[in-house]
Amino acid sequence: MQYTPTLHKLSNGVTVILDPMELETTAVRVAFSTGSRDETESQYGLTHFCEHMLCKGTPRFPTKKIIDDYMDYHGGTHNASTGRSSLSFYGRILAKNVNVLIDYLGDQIQNSLFDPAKIEIERRVICDELRRALDNPSRQFSDFMSERVFGNRTFSTLNLGTFETINSFTRDQMLDFLSRRLSAQNCIIGVSGRIYDTDAVLAQLEKSFSFLPMHDVAENTDIPYTPGVYHNSQPDKKNVQLCILFPDIWPADFAHYYNNISVGRFERYMNKQISDVLRQDNGLVYGFSGFDIGNEHHGWNGFFTETSASNIAQVVALIAQNAYRIYTAPDITADDLDRYNRKDALGDADWLESATRRCDKLIGFYRNHGIIYDFAWANRQFDRISVSDVVENSRGYFAGPMSIVTQGSDFDTDLRSIWDENFK
Q1: Chain mean pLDDT for the chain
Q2: Integer Cα distance of 285 and 257 in angstroms
Q3: Angle at which helices 64-73 and 98-111 cross, to 10°
Q4: Quick one: DSSP state of residue 55?
Q5: 91 burial class (0-12, 13-18, 19+ CB within 10 angstroms)?
Q6: Are both 6-209 and 229-422 of the same fold?
Q7: Which residues contact 280 (CB under 8 A, 6 or more apart)?
């Protein structure tokens, strides 16, 4: 599979990554480094509300039907999303019509109408979206963990806002917010797929996005951490969700890339071993997995599972016993590492063969590290990991302040004491 992405800059400083592929379509993503983490308490949900309104029509394309018909005619799709640290507009189209998609994305970001009547419609839609999110057990768990452990600075329904903030936003407030948060300096555009004419694509990008101003945009990357044991009581539930977290050993920067992927091999081995003990040997859980949370500067890793309240003490004890065993006497082998590399080839194909996913990966890596992701170089790093590298780089994995977060049925068990009694 061809992999030769190149880096470019528009005249106003917008970063562009072009990633040619032998396909019949082209994916385009316009990503701004701004999101819910950059909002103040009174602004919770403002980025997301703006995202909705940036998809509700321009003078050229005033209605959703006109937009959809236009895209259908040219063989394209379009969408948008809001995350903790990003506001993105993206689509995929027949390669011969890539300029149509680029032109549309530029038009919607520059010229969206923010029609007052549509703002009120979307206000109701977003409130409904929030109600659905608040009813979702996974979102409830994320909200609880974010509030108690991370000071609301990680993923939660605050990405959507609160009913109070959603109902408070005005048109002027949205336009002012976007004028400050959207800039050429925090914008990355990725184009993956068939590119017939590189110069023509760059010229269209220049034409469509030269309007972006060039001011700096501050990013709130801090995540406060309050370790502890927290339970979100839901007496009507039959099971208990369990998350055990430890701070990352190594910084998430590029200088520690090798250290972190070596630790990742340790985690992969440990999680599989513990999963086998809990499910295959004892039948205590349906699923068990590793868990990670954080951003480009701070991170936490650990374990996630779900079990009954009557089994929670035994589950935590077994996790602690086996984590200690594997950490103090790691029996990972060179064959395990080779097997991981071979299995990862299938996972690599999942994104290497998808223009949309390649576009996302290239933008994400550039945002975090300031360079284009080099697939061949990354493979060489994995190939050279040795058992001693895994052991050496994972020392201190359990040394940081631990958090244990649960949600669901109540139980009368001191999970921290159980961990301490068994992690030895």
Answers
A1: 97
A2: 33
A3: 160
A4: T
A5: buried
A6: yes
A7: none
Query: Quick one: tokens of 270?
Result: 């440990």
Q: How far is CA 390 from CA 248, 326, 339, in A?
A: 15, 12, 15
Q: What is the pLDDT of residues 127-180, one digit of tens each?
A: 999 999 999 999 999 999 999 999 999 888 999 999 999 999 999 999 999 999
Domains of the chain, residue spans: 6-209, 229-422
Task: Give the C-alpha separation, 392 to 266, whole Å.
Answer: 10
- The superfamily (CATH) of domain 229-422 is Metalloenzyme, LuxS/M16 peptidase-like (3.30.830.10)
| pLDDT tens for each residue of 343-367 | 999 999 999 999 999 999 999 999 9
Pick the CATH number of 6-209 from 3.40.50.620, 3.10.450.350, 3.30.830.10, 3.40.710.10: 3.30.830.10
Q: In sequence order, what are the beta bridge partners of 404?
A: 229, 244
Q: For residue 28, what is the enclosing H or E element?
A: strand 25-32
Task: For residues 423 and 274, give the distance between their C-alpha atoms in angstroms, rounded to a whole number.
Answer: 13
Task: Give the strand pairing for 15-20 and 6-9.
Answer: antiparallel
